[in-house]
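Purpose: get a first structural picture of the assembly so the mutagenesis plan has something to point at.
Setup: two entries, given in the order below. No constraints added.
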Amino acid sequence: MKQMVRLGLILAAYATVACVGLAFVYTGTQQVITERQRADLEQSLKDLFPQGDQFKEITGAFSSSDPQVQFKNQYLILQGDEPLGVAVRAVGSSYGGPITVLVGVTREGTISGVKILENKDTPGLGANAANPSYFVDRRSGITFYGQFKGKSVQDKFQVKEDVVAITASTITSKAVTTVVKVASQAAYAWLTSEGGNTK
Amino acid sequence: MKRYLTIFKNGLVRENPLLMLMIGLCSSLAVTTAAANGVGMGLSMTFVLLMSEIVISSFRKLIPDSIRIPVFIIVIAAFTTVIDYLLKAYFPDLSRAMGVFIPLIVVNCIIMGRVEGFASKRPIPEVIADALGMGLGYTWVLLGISMIRELLGNGTIFNIRIMPESYQPIIFFILSPGGFLVFALFISFNLFLKSRLKNGEEECK
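Result (structure tokens, whole complex):
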């Protein structure tokens, strides 16, 4: 019994020292980490809405209609007081696990851009979804994720019909397309019903 | 001095953790798809190994035998978390590329093995030599494997294009079977090195 308490106390002492040390490192780095994450996010949103000068997080404003697709964060992009559109960070399931996509939708119901944030699919095949030098149309230099830009939310979003698939990666192509479709339709529905009016 | 050099050199070839002891393979095969990842993982691992070995060696008389494994894990986990935070703050791309394998350094058997088998019994200077040798032995293998895999599988090294534009990447090398193949070649190369070293030493005698 005595021995057990002694060992317990020794272990507690080591754990305490480790925790105090980690607390210092945490306070030292956490600010940089959150700042960098914010800067990253702002850069991504800026890529989708170059005119946007303000971003407001509206996570939870609308929800996904497809159980396969989850909305993680939602942002309202404003230019001055005028809402430009909505960006949704959505997660779908693909060949190699979850795939995270940022989808931007304008008030007019067109897709302002798509960014693949995280993708664990096969390098050289499915991973080409996020590759800026992989072109679905070599002549015009359109990338896989770039082909969504300018599409209307009312489009069919069918791979091999109005969406060009990545060679030998149908699952990835379909996963991205589904996420874009679900996210953009939900975002547009919200924009036309209430989001476009709230200031 | 010579003793420390011997301990240091031990980790490079003769007792190379990856090629001879063959421990800690899972994460090393998974992260070596690009040269930058290989170096990042190797250096992170060396840092954790060095710091844990130093701390455990200096407290080795204050660690009761029956709870030594939990204490080792606390020490290793603390340093792993430190490197995880630092990478996230200052090298976000590297941290993203290596994902879960940085936190998993905690349970990497190379560190556990060295701490249990070496650091908990030896004085600090020897332990530093051992950690640097093992760490460097780990890093050079990762760097070598990842350079070959990136070159053949993507046509680049450190993201700089080496192969001509017309080169069709052999995706096989980026995927796990390619990792095993390159790894096996490294093992045979290391055995060759080891046999040469042995001959050299015998000639010296």
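Residues 124-154 of chain B form the longest helix (31 residues).
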